[in-house]
Inverse folding.
């Protein structure tokens, strides 16, 4: 059984008392995710900052502005790391906490009271190495930083806005090292960096509590990960400058997939060694590998797709920019340097979601908002849409109605005008409507006779790509061959060698027999094209088509192990294969559907898409050099 208490909004000292009361009488792990999680990551940032400037933890002098549960959790951790209590000065709303103080004193705070004549925070700032803000925005003014020691360390972890604006600090102290809760700044302190993995380690060992040893193990694991060599799959999603251990990279990125591999085992080991584990993990290395497989199955192709990007971050239009999942995914895309979001939606609605979810999206700085109700944007789109569809008899009135009722249509017009490099849609509405908008506005690339979709299905061992004929209900052999080649190009763009299987309808009726014959004709056309490319000096691509067609009943379905790309006769058959693969593996996460053959890159999601699926689709959408795509 899992049970939890949220004390994040409980003021001090009540939050501490509640947490302690929950922990003492029960034989289950009690952990305050907001307070303890942030404190652990902040402590890891502090530890690495001190190591970077060459200062021993025991010699550091720390000033803390704030006396809440989060502040006390952080201070307890840094003391356990070796910081001496006599070097810590804590300030509450009345000033510096001192021995003999009566007002506002509680047992938890009393252990940090100092025998000092200083009564204001400013009095204890000269020579301080570390300034920690755990109170409210702009409490500690940048002027106080001027008198701190060389390479001052600023840990500003107020929930909404930092106590000290990084820009203001750097204006007066260019040597400052800063970590904040704000996602747009380097050294983003987020409880997501440790809480899920601490809980995982505790649950896997049946820990009765999350004790100090387990928290310290998490601190050291996070700190060591920031100093470890950066694997190429992690480096692919971040700027190289930001991934060198130093002032701008004291802690890993919140979505570093290696975190579960180091934090959970460290916590599990600490639980066993400290005597709170009810189950022991015999083979820690095997446990670590199992965790790696868990996280690996969620996004195996995204790093590959991103690795092909150029240094400049490309922009992606999100057609449903008011959707909370989309906004959270946009935040992830920024944090992981995947793309610059262009959010289509009403600014006030988006601002409300950003504020409610406490996201770091900052329009004009790290993202852009396009208001669909803006008269200039709307009128320009209507004019261009009428010109584009003039042969279909689209009047200005009808164009205005269609553009107001279909955000995907407006997003496609913005993409066509060069407002972004790629587009994502589909978190609301039916797929057919999105496909029609793409067909009518985006159109086909030069030299392409048909459009198709390719869904990336993330299986435990490898990705599986499923292509179907999009709006072509009964494609001919030539169209199927074209779809196969479009899919091969897309898979190769992702850095994966394609192994293709052509899949007809299942069954034995005359219609299915005709379908199988058509697929065999398509395979013949493909082989002829391969021979022509080889004789003409082009890249021999026959190895991409080792598989022939197959015609089996659903119960006998068994996709060749060498095939990683299936070309379906139609969307219905694609759905059958997709569901079979999900059921047979027990897993399978979709990264959306890429439209193949379109002039610009478009990915279509589903209303059930998760945040990570949206991020994966974003990564796949911008993985190519978009300058290679035709713009007219």
């Amino acid at each position: 059984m899992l049970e939890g208490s949220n004390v994040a909004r409980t003021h001090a000292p009540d939050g501490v008392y509640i947490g302690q009361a929950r922990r003492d009488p029960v034989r289950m792990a009690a952990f305050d995710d907001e307070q303890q999680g942030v404190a652990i990551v902040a402590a890891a940032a502090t530890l690495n900052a001190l190591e970077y400037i060459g200062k021993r933890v025991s010699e550091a002098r720390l000033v803390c502005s704030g006396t809440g549960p989060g502040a006390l959790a952080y201070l307890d951790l840094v003391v356990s790391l070796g910081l001496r209590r006599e070097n810590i000065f804590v300030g509450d709303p009345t000033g510096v906490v001192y021995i003999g103080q009566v007002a506002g004193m509680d047992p938890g705070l009393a252990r940090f009271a100092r025998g000092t004549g200083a009564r204001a925070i400013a009095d204890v700032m000269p020579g301080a190495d570390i300034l920690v803000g755990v109170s409210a925005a702009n409490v500690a003014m940048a002027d106080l930083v001027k008198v701190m020691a060389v390479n001052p360390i600023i840990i500003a972890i107020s929930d909404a806005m930092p106590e000290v604006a990084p820009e203001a600090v750097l204006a007066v102290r260019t040597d400052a090292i800063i970590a904040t809760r704000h996602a747009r700044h380097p050294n983003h302190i987020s409880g997501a960096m440790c809480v899920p993995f601490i809980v995982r380690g505790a649950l896997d060992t049946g820990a009765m509590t999350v004790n100090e040893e387990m928290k310290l193990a998490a601190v050291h694991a996070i700190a060591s990960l920031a100093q470890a060599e950066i694997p190429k799959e992690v480096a692919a999603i971040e700027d190289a400058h930001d991934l060198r251990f130093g002032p701008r990279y004291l802690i890993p990125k919140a979505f570093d997939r290696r975190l579960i591999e180091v934090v959970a085992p460290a916590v599990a080991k600490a639980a066993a060694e400290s005597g709170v584990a009810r189950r022991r993990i015999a083979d820690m290395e095997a446990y670590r590998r199992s965790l790696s497989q868990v996280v690996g199955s969620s996004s195996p192709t995204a790093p590959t797709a991103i690795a092909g990007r150029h240094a400049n971050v490309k922009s992606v239009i999100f057609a449903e920019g008011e959707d909370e999942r989309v906004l959270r995914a946009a935040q992830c895309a920024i944090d992981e340097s995947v793309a610059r979001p262009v959010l289509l939606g009403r600014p006030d609605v988006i601002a409300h979601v950003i504020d409610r979810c406490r996201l770091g999206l900052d329009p004009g700085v790290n993202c852009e908002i396009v208001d669909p109700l803006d008269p200039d944007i709307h009128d320009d789109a209507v004019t261009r849409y009428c010109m584009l569809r003039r042969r279909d008899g689209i009047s200005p009135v009808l164009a205005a109605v269609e553009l107001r009722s279909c955000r995907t249509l407006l997003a496609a017009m913005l993409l066509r005008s060069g407002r972004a490099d790629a587009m994502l849609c589909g978190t609301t509405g039916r797929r057919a409507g999105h496909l029609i908008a793409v067909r009518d506005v985006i159109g086909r690339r030069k030299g392409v006779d048909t459009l198709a979709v390719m869904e990336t299905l993330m299986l435990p061992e490898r990705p599986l790509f499923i292509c179907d004929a999009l709006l072509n209900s009964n494609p001919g052999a030539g169209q199927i061959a074209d779809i196969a080649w479009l899919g091969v190009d897309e898979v190769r763009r992702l850095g994966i060698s394609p192994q293709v299987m052509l899949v007809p309808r299942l069954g034995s009726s005359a219609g299915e027999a005709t379908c199988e014959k058509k697929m065999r004709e398509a395979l013949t056309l493909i082989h002829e094209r391969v021979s022509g490319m080889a004789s003409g000096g082009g890249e021999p691509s026959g190895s991409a088509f080792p598989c022939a067609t197959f015609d089996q009943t659903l119960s006998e379905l068994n996709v060749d192990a060498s095939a990683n790309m299936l070309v379906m006769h139609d969307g219905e058959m694609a759905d059958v294969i997709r569901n079979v693969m999900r059921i047979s593996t027990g897993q399978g996460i979709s990264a959306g559907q890429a439209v193949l053959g379109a002039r610009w890159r478009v990915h279509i999601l589903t209303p059930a898409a998760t945040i990570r699926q949206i991020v994966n689709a974003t990564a796949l959408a911008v993985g190519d050099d978009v300058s290679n795509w035709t713009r007219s």
